[in-house]
Write a structure and sequence with these properties.
219 residues; mainly alpha; Arc Repressor Mutant, subunit A; three-stranded antiparallel beta sheet; two-stranded antiparallel sheet; 5 strands
């Protein structure tokens, strides 16, 4: 029996494979840090991830959206939210758009616990701080490209990044330091100020995202 996707093994000497290995090690380190922070706060890593997700979305999120963003099953998300609700860290409210649905929101107690759990820099952040500025910028740009590729492939939900926002105007200014423009705040900004997760983000349609990406990468 041939397993789909296994007919052409990946070359373990290729740069692509080695990058994958490196990302896996970073993911393991970040996961260990998350588990450590969560344990100190009396939570599981998934529970802390829910609080982190909701902290940036005061309007709340549906259970299905939470599951998709955290890449967990809906039953796992449901059980996690029920536990957090019993502890008083989240609350469910009726959705204005659909009274049959509910939105999960962070409570004041949940926000306080999240702030406490997220305090301090982990070993990965400390390692990033040792990089030269050029290395940081190259890594940042590579991460944006990777995340965009994953979201356009449907592997992850659309992220609240500048490059997918209808307010983003790449390379609108001649200034090489601040070439981009945010139409929401009517201000120029540079690559280091690109947002990975902006609370004011408004998703653009696929055609607009593709056009914006072409201008951004060819700028």
């Amino acid at each position: 029996m041939q397993i789909r996707g296994m007919d052409t093994p990946e070359d373990k000497n290729s740069i692509d494979y080695r990058i994958g290995e490196g990302l896996a090690r970073l993911a393991a380190a970040l996961g260990a840090e998350d588990r450590g922070r969560a344990k100190e706060a009396g939570l599981t890593a998934t529970q802390l991830a829910v609080l982190t997700l909701l902290e940036g979305r005061p309007e709340g999120m549906g259970v299905g959206d939470i599951a998709r963003h955290l890449l967990v099953t809906q039953p796992t998300a449901t059980d996690t939210i029920l536990t957090l609700e019993r502890k008083g860290y989240v609350a469910k409210l009726a959705s204005d758009a659909d009274r049959r649905a509910s939105l999960v929101q962070l409570t004041a107690a949940g926000a306080a616990l999240h702030s406490l759990a997220e305090g301090g820099r982990g070993s990965v952040s400390e390692a990033v701080a040792t990089l030269a500025e050029g290395q940081k910028r190259a890594l940042f740009e590579a991460l944006i490209t990777l995340i965009r590729g994953l979201q356009e492939a449907g592997a992850i939900p659309l992220q609240r990044m500048c490059i997918s926002c209808q307010y983003f105007r790449p390379h609108s200014h001649p200034d090489p330091v601040r070439p981009h423009h945010c139409a929401l705040v009517d201000a120029a900004f540079g690559d280091p100020d690109l947002r990975m997760d902006c609370r004011d983000h408004v998703s653009s349609d696929p055609a607009h995202r593709a056009a914006t990406w072409r201008v951004f990468t060819q700028g």
